[in-house]
Each structure stands twice: as structure tokens, then as C-alpha cells.
Design brief:
about 180 residues; mainly alpha
Length: about 180
């Protein structure tokens, strides 16, 4: 099923449930990896993915079709993952006095039994942790998800020019971080 066919069926109340099931099948892996890059832990990513689909289903009537369905659900997943990290950080700050979210998340990735990345992936993750949140978000959407700027603009409600600048700055900072390791 194409994105256009899916969107048409989701807009139709008679075919909405079947189309949503198809959307889950089409997008669950992509959304999982988006969420996983943000929350880092496999179990947490699974939980956030379930919350994403639940929230999407509960709010399906609010989907107006002005953007692609994937853009709409991607945005939900993005905000669910970010909110999950904020909540987890607040809990960690209160219970364990953890000072920085990025150090907590990086330690989680290294200690995660599902993290099987090589040294290059770990270095890239460390470099990403040094980026400001907006630059990191744009870099991940563009680099990992190969998302066009117009789709990123729809999700983040930011101009394409600003996104291109953010991506450029992120790449330069990552290159600088990696070159300083040598």
C-alpha cells in the first residue's frame, strides 16, 4: 500500500481501523529506530513505540490529512520519546541526583545488551550527545532517516533554510569532535 492509499483509507471512517493496522506494520521499524536513538534502551523504546501507536489511535480523528500520515505519526513518536527522556531525567535527578541527561543516556547505550555497535557508532553517538538538541534532532532525521528537508520542516515547524543551517552546523561539530579524538 502506498502512503497516498494509506492516507485515503485512514481519512475514511469505514476503512480507518484496517488502514491503521497497516500503518503500524509499515512504520513500526522506522519509528522504533527513531525512538531508540532518543531513549537508547531497547525496553524503553518498545514502551514509547507502544505509547506512540496508542496516542496516534486515540487521536486519529484529529488527523486532518494536511500532512502525510507518516509525518504526523513521526511527530507523535518524536515528542513521546523526548517527553519520556524528560520524565526519566526528572526521576533520575530526584532519586539518584544525576547531573546530566546526556551522560546518563550515553552510559545506558554502552551498558545496553542490545547495543551492538562498533567503536565508530559509539564515537558518533558521543559526538551527537555534544550537539544542541535542535541540531541533533535535525541531523538524526536527515542522516539516519534520510528525510527530506520539507518533511523535517513539517514535523518541526521550522523553515527549510534554518534546518539546512542546523544540519550544516551539526556536521561541522561532529567532524570537529571526531578530529579532536586523534
Amino acid at each position: 500500500m502506498t502512503e497516498d492509499e494509506l492516507q485515503e483509507q485512514i481519512m475514511n471512517p469505514d476503512t480507518r481501523a484496517v488502514a491503521f493496522t497497516e500503518a503500524v506494520q509499515m512504520y513500526q521499524e522506522k519509528l522504533y529506530w527513531l525512538i531508540r536513538r532518543i531513549v537508547r534502551q531497547h525496553d524503553d523504546a518498545d514502551d514509547v513505540l507502544q505509547e506512540t501507536f496508542l496516542k496516534a489511535w486515540q487521536n486519529l480523528n484529529s488527523f486532518r490529512g494536511e500532512a502525510k500520515f507518516y509525518t504526523w505519526i513521526y511527530r507523535i513518536a518524536l515528542f513521546e520519546a523526548i517527553n519520556y527522556n524528560k520524565k526519566k531525567k526528572r526521576i533520575a535527578d530526584n532519586e539518584y541526583a544525576v547531573s546530566e541527561e546526556t551522560s546518563y543516556l550515553l552510559e545506558s547505550a554502552v551498558a545496553d545488551p542490545y547495543f551492538d555497535g562498533d567503536k565508530g557508532e559509539l564515537i558518533l553517538q558521543q559526538a551527537l550527545d555534544k550537539l544542541p538538541p535542535k541540531q541533533r534532532q535535525v541531523f538524526e532525521m536527515r542522516y539516519f532517516d534520510e528525510m527530506p528537508y520539507r518533511d523535517i520542516a513539517a514535523i518541526t515547524e521550522t523553515s527549510e533554510g534554518a534546518l539546512k543551517a542546523s544540519y550544516h552546523h551539526a556536521v561541522k561539530k561532529i567532524q570537529l569532535y571526531i578530529s579532536n579524538l586523534n
